[in-house]
Every structure is written in C-alpha cells, then in structure tokens.
Amino acid sequence: MSEAKLVFIGGGNMATSLIGGLIEKGYPTSHIAACDPVVDSGKRLKADFGITTHTENTTAAAEADIIILAVKPQIMKAVAKDLAPALTHKPLVISIAAGITAAALQSWLGEEVPIIRCMPNTPALVQSGASGLFATNLVNPMQRQRAGDILAAVGTVSWLDSEDDIDKVTALSGSGPAYFFLVIEAMTEAGIKLGLNPETARQLTLQTALGAARMAEASDVDAAELRKRVTSPAGTTEKAINRLLENKLPEHFEQAIAAAYHRAKEMADELSI
Ligand SMILES: NC(=O)c1ccc[n+]([C@@H]2O[C@H](COP(=O)([O-])OP(=O)(O)OC[C@H]3O[C@@H](n4cnc5c(N)ncnc54)[C@H](OP(=O)(O)O)[C@@H]3O)[C@@H](O)[C@H]2O)c1
After folding, report:
1. How far, in Å, CA of 60 to CA of 69, rounded?
2. CATH T-level fold of 176-267
3. Is ligand 1 within 6 A of the CB of residue 174?
C-alpha cells in the first residue's frame, strides 16, 4: 500500500475501524493523524494506535495527502467550509458521510479539490465491511488506487460509475447489516419458540449465518443454486422455503431496499444544500 499522509477528520466509530484496519495491514502510524474536537477521542486514538492527534481540523489538514471526512452528515457543511482555506495544496478528500453529494462537497471545499464519495458499512468495525466508491473527474489514477487500498483495509471495495449508485449502495449494503440482524433475531426467536434454550438458539443461528455466507463466497455457483442443492424434495428445508416464498419474502426485500434507496435520495436533497 502506498504511504500517503492520511488525516481523519472525526475520530469516531468509522475512523477508528479504518485506522485499526490500516495499521493491521502495515500502514505506518507516522503517516496517520486524526482530528476530533473531543480531547478524550484523541487520547483514545493515540493510546490505541500511537497516531498523531489534533483538535484543530485546519492544522491537521494542511499537511495531508488524503483527508478522510468521517463526521456526521449533519455537521459536514460547517466542517467542510471551515477546512476549505487549508486545502490550497488540493489533497484528495474522501467523504464517508451518507447523503452528502460530491457537488455539495465541491462547493464547500473548493472547485479544484479531488473528491471521492464512499459508502462503507458497520462490519468495517470487524474488518468485514463492504464499501462502494465513486470518484469525481478531478481524481487521478494514483489517488483512486490509494483510496481503494484504504477502504480495502476494512473489507471489500466496489467502484461505481455513477454517483446515484452511492444511494443504491446505501440501501443495499450500507443499511444491509440491519436486515441480516433482523433475520438473525427472527431465526433465534423461532428456535427459542420451538423449545431450544436461548444461548443454543443464538449460537446455532449465528454459526449458520456465518457458514452460509462463507459457503456462498467460496462457491462458484450462485445463491439460488446453493439453495436448490440443500433443498431435497419433500424435506424439511423445502417446507420452510415454500412457506417463506408463499409469504413473498423476496418481494418484501425488494420493496424494503427500494424504500431505503428513496430515503437515501431524499436525505441527499435535505443534507446537500
Ligand atoms: N457507522 C456506520 O455504519 C457508517 C456507515 C456508513 C457511513 N458512515 C458515515 O461515517 C461518518 C461517521 O460515522 P461514525 O459512525 O464514525 O460517527 P461517530 O462515531 O459519531 O464519529 C464522528 C466523530 O466526529 C467527531 N466530530 C464532531 N464534530 C467534529 C468536528 N467539527 N471536527 C472533527 N470531528 C468532529 C465526533 O465527536 P462528538 O461525538 O463529540 O460529536 C465523533 O467523534 C458519518 O458521516 C456516517 O454517515 C457511517
């Protein structure tokens, strides 16, 4: 991985997981800094990772090759406008904030600043994230490579051709962990209702989720085929799957993910002004 100087603006959950992943992949701590107005957040990051910390965003940004904006979307406008004067050296800016468009960032940070929008998800906290990235025209191939390497430290990276796809990624994988948590919750409850003790039901459900995901990942056939292979005619799996299909589970997912996509677009309209 190239060794550009990285500065995280915002030292919360996402920044912490990215910093942890980068260090685990061998990124030098001397090239990572973070800025958070909360002194305790800085102290924690320094103690956990040995990186440099700041409390002034502009001081931190002045020496950065890459700035990662990891603050809540609601405060992004104020943070970006405050940073703009410190970006005359035109570092690459990667925003992981939901709902803030590249055009809005461009207008707040400066028209010549190269910007990448990224939508990670919470499993990044355990280095199993899935991120979608979209680069604006000002981003050069080396910057694109570096951004991909940074996000690859905490999971998979998918490059997107259109910025609108970021809202689709938000709906699918950004919000996606919660859909799987709901399935885990429902399966565990169903096991408990059958009479299993709660800890056993939980462990069996979790291991089944992990095992199924690993099998699907390792397999050269798609999930539909894997499902068919474990569904014997007139067996137990067929009974359960038929009940789920009669109750239109796939249609429910389609509608749920479409609703999340429309909400992501609405949020972009609300936050990017
Ligand atoms: N967590 C996720 O799953 C996820 C997924 C995709 C995208 N994202 C995006 O990632 C971004 C960060 O999310 P997060 O979960 O890491 O949030 P978080 O834990 O709240 O981290 C944000 C950090 O920024 C700090 N901060 C507040 N004002 C600041 C300022 N002016 N300058 C610098 N830092 C400031 C916050 O301090 P205080 O706590 O004192 O406010 C907090 O430590 C969000 O935009 C979110 O949309 C998150």
Report:
1. 12
2. ProC C-terminal domain-like fold (1.10.3730)
3. yes
Question: What is the arithmetic mean of pLDDT over 148-159?
Answer: 94
Query: Which of 7, 8, 9, 13 for a ligand 1 pocket mutation test, highest count of atoms within 8 Å of Cβ?
Result: 13
The 3-state DSSP class for residue 49 equals helix
> Do 6-161 and 176-267 fold alike per CATH?
no
Mean pLDDT, residues 44-51: 92
Q: Which of 175, 177, 120, 172 is nearest to 150 (CA)?
A: 120
* pLDDT above 90: residue 65: yes
Q: Domain residue spans in the chain?
A: 6-161, 176-267
Query: For ligand 1, is residue 75 a contact (CB within 6 Å)?
Result: yes
DSSP secondary-structure letter at 125? Answer: G
Entry pTM: 0.90
Which 3 state secondary structure label does DSSP give 248?
A: coil
Could you tell me if the CB of 60 is within 6 A of ligand 1?
no
Tell me, using a 6 A CB cutoff, whether residue 120 lines ligand 1: yes
User: Does residue 2 carry a pLDDT above 80?
Assistant: no
- Tell me what pLDDT residue 25 has: 86
Is the beta carbon of 9 within 6 A of some atom in ligand 1? yes
Closest residue by Cα to atom 34, ligand 1, is 10
Residue 272 has pLDDT above 90, yes or no: no
What are the DSSP E strand ranges found in the chain? 6-9, 32-35, 52-54, 66-69, 92-95, 115-119, 129-135, 155-159
95 lines ligand 1 (CB under 6 A): no
CA of 21 to the centre of ligand 1 (A): 17
Residues 66 and 148 sit within 8 Å (Cβ to Cβ): no
Topology of the domain comprising 6-161: Rossmann fold (3.40.50)
